[in-house]
Design a protein that fits this description.
single chain, Rossmann fold, two-stranded antiparallel ribbon, 8 helices, 55% helix, globular
Amino acid sequence: MVLIDATTLLLFLSPLAEPPTATNLPIEHAQLRVEHLVKSLEAKRTKILVPAPALSEVLVRAGTAGQQYVRRIERSSVFRTVPFDTKAAIEVATMTREAIENKDKRDGADGTWAKIKYDRQIVAIAKVHGVEAIYSDDGNIRSFATRHDIPVIGLRECQVPQESLQGRQNQS
């Protein structure tokens, strides 16, 4: 079982989604990487958890395509939407309390307080579900997850299938 964040999910669902940047450089072939990732996980029968807070972020960006995205996720055997429930709330409270005790409520994270809370929720959901890894390029998610011994895999680390690249080169 793995978990994906909003950016990764949106890249899978929308051909118009902007790829994330790492070190200010766009990640080449981002959509091919995500498509290959999902196919590979599906072939291994690995469930991909979609945390409700991440789904919410996707739906904000989706506009009129939101319902279509939800249907696609619900119909897929590989995706499973998971709520921010009581166990995850307890985990977020613990994470936040520890950060406050260490005199840094943000725990070194960047962004608005709302973004930090969302990122903690996503990591807490991953932790209570015992995922093997989180697929994300978000620095806050990486930082929070690392503190809880959850591996984070960035999109640049995901493979690009060579046959897809060859097919695209032949079309040019």
